[in-house]
Each structure stands twice: as C-alpha cells, then as structure tokens.
Write a structure and sequence with these properties.
Belongs to the N-acetylmuramoyl-L-alanine amidase 2 family. The protein is of the alpha+beta class and 522 residues long. Helices cover 13% and strands 19% of the residues. The chain has a domain of 157 residues. Strand 12 and strand 13 form a beta hairpin. The protein is globular and about 60 Å long.
Length: 522
Amino acid sequence: MKRRTWLAVGSVVLGGSVVATVAVATTSDTSDEQARSERMRPVAAYTETFQGGDPGKRSVPRKDTRPFSMLGVSWEDPEAELDGTAQIRTRSAQSGQWTRWQDLDLGIRPPETDEGQDSGVRGASEPLWVGESDGVEARVLAEGGESAELPGGLRLVMIDPGVLGEDIGKGWRKVGDMNGGGNSQEPSQQPTTEPTPEPSQGESSTEPSPSASATEEPEPSQEPSQQPTTEAPTGEPSPEPSTDPTGEPSTEPTGEPTGEPTPEPSTEPTGEPSPEPSTDPTPTGEPTPEPSTEPTGEPSADPSTEPTGEPSTTAPAPSPSEPQTPRIVSRAQWGADESLVEDPPSYMSRVDAVFVHHTAGTNSYTCTQSASIIRGILTYHVKTNGWNDVGYNFFVDKCGTIFEGRAGGVDKAVRGAHTYGFNGNSAGVSLLGNYEDGGRPTQAALDAIARISGWKLGLYGADPAGKVTLTAAADTGVWKNGERATLYRISGHRDGYATLCPGADLYSQLPAIRTRAAASSS
C-alpha cells in the first residue's frame, strides 16, 4: 500500500484549527457559470486538537467554526481502544441553537486486510451527521475517570460535505427507486405485517411487502410522516439512479470537476420528489420458511469459505445467469471525489454473504440530504480513518434509494471495509440512520436492502435465505481468528463483530429481509 500523504489545494490555520479543502474546478468562463461557481462550496475536512492536562480527560471548548455537517473523534494508534465516552454538542447554522450532548459510537475497527495496515490509518469513532452547523464543543472522558488514560493524538474532526454542481443532482426529482417498484407513495415508517413463516427464537415475523407494479402512476413522495425533522435540509438534490450501474468507476484521481455549480441551499424543507417507475420485477411465489437463528447449525449444501489470500485487482466474472440489476445511484451521481481514492480496488473471488449495517447518528435527515451524508462518510473514512475508500459496498436511505458505495463496479466482488474479520468474502450494505435507540426502518428501506442483497448474492448463485460457513480472519469479540462461523448469508454486523450495529430494530427485520431477498432473486 502507498504511504498516505494528504496534499490539500489550500490549507488555512483558523483559530487553532487546520482546514483542508478538496477543490472543485470549473473550466467555463461564462458569467452564469462564474456566478454559480461563487455559490459552490467544496468538500472540506478540518480538525481541532483536544486540550487538558489530565490523562483521562480532554476537551475542545465551545467555539465558532467554519460550516460542517458531520464530525467524529480520532486518535493516533488504530489498534488502541478508547475506553470511555466521547461526547459532542453543536450549534445549528440555521437557528443558532445548541444541541444537547450526544455520544459518539466508539465501536469501529480498521479492516483486518492490508488496507488496515497503511501508515496513515488512525483509530476513530463512527462519524455523526449533525446537519449544517457553525459551532462545536466536545469532551472525552476515560472509563475510570481522570486517573485513567486516553489514547494519544486525540483530534476532533469536522466534515463539510459541500455544495456541489447542478450536474450532480440532475434527475434527483425523478428517482425511480423510492420504494422499490415505481410506487412512489410515502414509505411507511412502520413495516407491514403480512403473514410470514413462523420465526424461530423470537425473530420478528414482520415481512416487507413486495413493491407495487412498475406500471402504477407515481404520486408525489414526501418524507416519512412519523420521522421528526430537526435539521434544515441542505437543499441539495438527490441524484437519479443510473440506468447502467454496472460500469466500473475509475480508481485514478481525476482532478476534474464533479458538476456544475449550484446556488446556496434554501433553508425551507421541501417535499420528496416524484419518482419515475422502476423496472424492478415484482417478486412472485410464496416466501420460503425462515431458517433457524442458531449460528452453529450446519449450512445447507453451502460450501465452506476459507479466508482468501492476497486480493486481486482483476474482478472475477459473476455467474452466467444474473438476476436483474436494481436501480443504483452511481458514485458520480452522488458526487464522490475520486481523487481521494489512491489505490485500485481489491477484488475477491466471490461474495458469499451480505452484512447489514446502520450508519448510526440521526434519523431526522431528509432524503435530499442522503448524497451529502454519503459524501461526508467517504471523506471521513479516507481522511480520518485513513482507509483507501468508503468502507461499505452500498448505502440505502429511508426513501429506499440504493447508492453505490466503494468503487470497483457494483456487479463485481469488491473487497470492502465494513465487518472486521469477515471482509474477505462479503459485501456490506448500510442503512442511513440509527436503529438501536427506537428508530424504525421504513418499509421502503427494508425492501431496498432485500433487493440489493438478493441481487448481489444472486450474481454468485447463493441463496439469500440460506447459510454459509465463513472463517474469521481476526478476533472479533464474537469469533476467534481462524474459527469457522456458520452464518446466514444475509446477517447483521453484530453476527460477525461485537457491536450493536445494525441496531435492534433493523436486526429484528432480517428474517423478513431474507425472505424478500430470496423472492426477488428467484
């Protein structure tokens, strides 16, 4: 792996903070384009150093900042764990009001692959989306109080996802995958209660209902009515899913502009756009009974999967009979800065399992903010964690839109950085939001997770409702290094690694997701 050295287009020391910006260049000399360019805001990341003389207590005093919408805490040693609490509070750029103190999730680990051994890798919390803010205060306290010791090199990292050009958002108001089949009615916050096979060991019996026919006339879509919105939307349009999502993104830094400039965002929330009909087929047939939740059971005629060796930079071909590709918003459409990605993607021989995650943070985002959140996560994973690219292979938002994650081709077996110990044979799908503290995934989101998981596994002839035996490549807190783990092919992050992810409410929906995925891939 290359030594990671960050060269910013420009850096400014402002009130003790180091600011690095990712430039967005424009080539036109027309007056209209110049005016739009002046209203653009590039993606930026900047840091504050924690202060304090006590080894177990550090803080960033309350202060004014440049605009940001996402933040987290990082430290020097990626193998060190921050045993304690990290809390932040922010000031809304719209209202000027300060939020309550919020805890950061500290359960993240660098990947067990070569990517996690790069010299620029740091320990870090999960990033937290807070909406557009211009003030911050932070504190970190070691478990055991001030007499304990915190990791060295503590930094507060703030990410501004920027305001990008109009080309990034063209077609956002025609997203045809809002809830899976052209039915653009408001996604329900409460999953439907269609009869399903009797779950075992307390698993949820709530199954996502199949999406409506693609021939139905779409209606205007709004944000989920039961979802409180406490943050003003950025006004940035959401990209339209690509009609050719299988093209492989370039892994070389381009330095080209990501799109036409756009005016500063409105502070008025807007309704969700009206989608165009999707071409996704409506699943048919009765769902198969849900397998047992016992992870130690024998897999049903599934091969044992050992950890792979050195990753390949050439993608193996999927199986000849491929299921229909779902609509996926490409990296170019959500505004990924490809210059951040230094190394080419690594490929596995196949995808044997899909791990479902949540991004944690807030559920009060609007779906027009989804692209901004994903740009923030990409920037955080690369510039804070020190990874080569965003860790997840796919994202899903609460409106059921599917986004391409890590570069390398949505139909390829791209090695991600999402489930410590099991990155060598799996893909990661992450739902935007927090589903541990009472947040409930929408029906549209559940359907989209099922659709992308079933399609991905179907490329390699794997049954989404079945099990597979994987070999742990590290000590994960659940499995020992080298231990054989029999897991569902669609599992939660917590099945492989000691974490609350993907949250209790989303985890309880996995049986229904497996059933739906099996139906959609058949």
